[in-house]
C-alpha cells in the first residue's frame, strides 16, 4: 500500500475537488433539500476508547450509560476454534478477553462475525498480556521524562528534518537489526508504555487490520490513502508525540509479525498523521452537548473531506456506531458542504478561531468569522 493523493468520490450527493482557497472540499452534486442525508458511515478504519472508559463503552455499538460497567466479555468458547486455526498457544486459563467489552450478547456476536476477526483478537490479546506484565513489573511512564526540554531548542522550521532523521534511524538501523532477532529475544526490546500508548497501539493495529480487509479499489481504502496528514504540524506543537510514535511503531512491529510486510515507516506515519487531522470524537449521546463525556476517537475516511464552517450547512450525528451527515438547510448545486469540527458554535469568534488553529492548524475564514471579525 502506498500513501497517495488521487481522485476520491464517496457519495453521489457531493463531489470532492480542489477548493479555490486550497485543499479539498465537498460540493453538492445537485440541489438538495433540508434534512437530506448526504452521507452515512458505519464502518470506521480505526477506533480508540479512552482508557478511563474502556470498560464502560461497548466496543461495537459505542453505547455508554453514565459510567455503568459493560458486563459482556469475549470468553474462551467464543475464540477457541478461531485461535486454534491460527496455531495460537494461548490456553483457556490464560485468555483475558482481548480487552474488549460489550453491552449485549448481540453486539458481541456482531463484532465476532467480522471477516478474519480472529487475527485482530489475537493481536489485542498479545498486546494486553505484555502491557499488563509490564505494569506489574515496572512503573509504566514515559521513559524520557525530559522530552519537552529535548526539543525546546529546535526551531519549528527545522522540526520536519528532525522527524525525518528519527524515522531514517528506524528504517535503516532499528528495523534491520530487529528483523535478524528471534521473536523471543525481540520481545525483550519492547519499550515501556503508558495507557495512552497502549490505546494508540490498539488503534494502529485495528487500522492495519481493516486496511488489509479492503478490496484494492474500495471507496474506504481510496479515501484513506488520500487523507491529509497533519504529522509535522502536530509534532511541532506537541514534540512528545515523536517519541510516542517511535514507541508505538516498535510495539506493533514486534508483536504483529504478520503485518511487517506492509508496516513501513511511511505507511505507519500516514495512519497516525491522518488521525491527527481527521479523527472524529466519540461523544456520549445526550441532549445537552456541554455535559457530554468525550469517550474516544475514530477515523472515518469517507467523512473526512468535509471542511469546517462556523455556520455549517451539514449536521453530523452519531446513532450507535453509525455517523449520519444531514443537511441543516437547503443547498444549491456546487455549494460547499461544511460541518462543525468540534461543536464550538456557541463560542465567540476569537475562541473559535483559537481552538481551530491549535487543533487543525488553520485560520478560520468562514463567512461567519469574517462578518464577526
Fold and architecture overview:
The protein is an alpha+beta fold and 373 residues long. It has two domains: 14-42 and 300-372, Beta-clip-like (Beta Complex), CATH 2.170.270.10; 46-139 and 155-279, no CATH class. The protein has helices at residues 76-85, 105-112, 117-137, 147-152, 159-179, 183-186, 195-213, 219-225, 231-237, 240-255, 265-278, 349-360, 367-372; strands at 14-18, 24-28, 37-41, 46-49, 72-73, 101-102, 279-283, 294-299, 307-308, 314-319, 322-327, 336-339. The strands form four sheets. The chain has a four-stranded mixed beta sheet, with no helix packed on it. A hairpin with a 2-residue loop joins strand 10 and strand 11 (322-327). Helix 3 runs antiparallel to helix 7. The radius of gyration is 22 Å and the shape is globular. The model has no long low-confidence stretch (mean pLDDT 91).
Write the layout of secondary structure elements.
Layout: E1 14-18, E2 24-28, E3 37-41, E4 46-49, E5 72-73, H1 76-85, E6 101-102, H2 105-112, H3 117-137, H4 147-152, H5 159-179, H6 183-186, H7 195-213, H8 219-225, H9 231-237, H10 240-255, H11 265-278, E7 279-283, E8 294-299, E9 307-308, E10 314-319, E11 322-327, E12 336-339, H12 349-360, H13 367-372
Parallel strand pairs: 9-12
Antiparallel strand pairs: 1-2, 2-12, 3-11, 4-8, 5-6, 7-8, 10-11
Helix pairs in contact: 3-7, 7-10
Determine the structural class based on helices, strands and strand pairing. Answer: alpha+beta
* Proportion in helices: 40-55%
Would you identify the regions where 5 or more consecutive residues have pLDDT less than 50? none
* N to C succession of SSEs: EEEEEHEHHHHHHHHHHEEEEEEHH
SS elements, strand count: 12
Q: How big is the Rg?
A: 22 Å
Strand arrangement across the biggest beta sheet = 1-2-12-9
Count of domain modules: 2
Distance between the termini: 44 Å
Nearest-integer average pLDDT: 91
User: Tell me about the biggest sheet?
Assistant: 4 strands, mixed
Shape: globular
Per DSSP, what share of the residues sits in E-state strands of 2 or more residues?
Answer: 5-15%
Number of helices: 13
Amino acid at each position: 500500500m502506498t500513501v497517495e493523493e488521487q481522485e476520491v468520490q464517496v457519495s453521489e450527493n457531493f463531489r470532492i475537488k480542489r477548493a479555490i482557497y486550497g485543499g479539498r472540499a465537498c460540493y453538492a452534486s445537485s440541489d438538495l433539500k433540508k434534512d437530506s442525508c448526504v452521507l452515512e458511515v458505519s464502518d470506521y478504519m480505526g477506533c480508540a476508547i479512552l482508557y478511563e472508559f474502556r470498560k464502560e463503552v461497548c466496543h461495537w455499538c459505542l453505547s455508554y450509560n453514565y459510567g455503568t460497567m459493560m458486563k459482556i466479555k469475549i470468553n474462551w468458547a467464543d475464540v477457541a476454534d478461531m485461535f486454534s486455526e491460527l496455531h495460537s498457544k494461548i490456553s483457556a486459563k490464560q485468555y483475558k478477553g482481548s480487552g474488549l467489552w460489550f453491552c449485549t450478547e448481540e453486539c458481541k456476536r456482531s463484532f465476532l462475525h467480522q471477516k478474519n476477526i480472529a487475527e485482530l483478537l489475537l493481536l489485542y490479546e498479545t498486546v494486553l498480556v505484555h502491557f499488563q506484565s509490564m505494569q506489574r513489573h515496572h512503573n509504566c511512564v514515559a521513559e524520557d521524562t525530559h522530552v519537552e526540554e529535548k526539543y525546546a531548542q529546535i526551531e519549528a522550521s527545522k522540526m520536519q528534518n528532525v522527524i525525518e532523521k528519527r524515522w531514517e534511524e528506524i528504517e535503516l538501523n532499528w528495523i534491520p537489526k530487529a528483523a535478524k532477532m528471534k521473536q523471543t529475544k525481540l520481545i525483550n526490546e519492547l519499550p515501556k508504555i503508558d495507557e495512552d500508548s497502549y490505546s494508540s497501539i490498539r488503534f494502529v493495529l485495528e487500522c492495519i487490520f481493516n486496511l488489509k480487509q479492503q478490496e484494492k479499489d474500495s471507496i474506504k481504502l481510496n479515501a484513506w490513502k488520500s487523507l491529509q496528514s497533519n504529522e509535522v504540524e502536530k509534532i511541532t506543537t506537541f514534540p512528545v508525540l515523536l517519541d510516542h510514535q517511535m514507541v508505538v511503531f516498535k510495539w506493533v512491529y514486534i508483536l504483529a509479525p504478520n503485518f511487517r510486510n506492509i508496516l513501513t515507516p511511511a505507511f505507519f506515519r500516514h495512519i497516525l498523521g491522518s488521525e491527527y487531522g481527521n479523527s472524529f470524537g466519540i461523544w456520549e449521546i445526550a441532549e445537552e452537548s456541554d455535559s457530554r463525556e468525550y469517550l474516544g476517537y475514530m477515523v472515518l475516511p469517507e467523512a473526512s473531506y468535509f471542511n469546517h464552517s462556523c455556520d455549517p450547512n451539514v449536521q453530523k450525528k452519531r446513532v450507535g456506531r453509525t455517523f449520519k451527515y444531514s443537511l441543516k438547510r437547503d443547498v444549491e448545486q456546487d455549494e460547499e458542504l461544511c460541518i462543525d469540527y468540534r461543536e464550538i458554535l456557541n463560542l465567540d469568534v476569537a475562541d473559535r478561531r483559537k481552538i481551530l488553529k491549535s487543533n487543525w492548524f488553520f485560520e478560520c475564514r468562514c463567512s461567519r468569522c469574517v462578518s464577526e471579525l
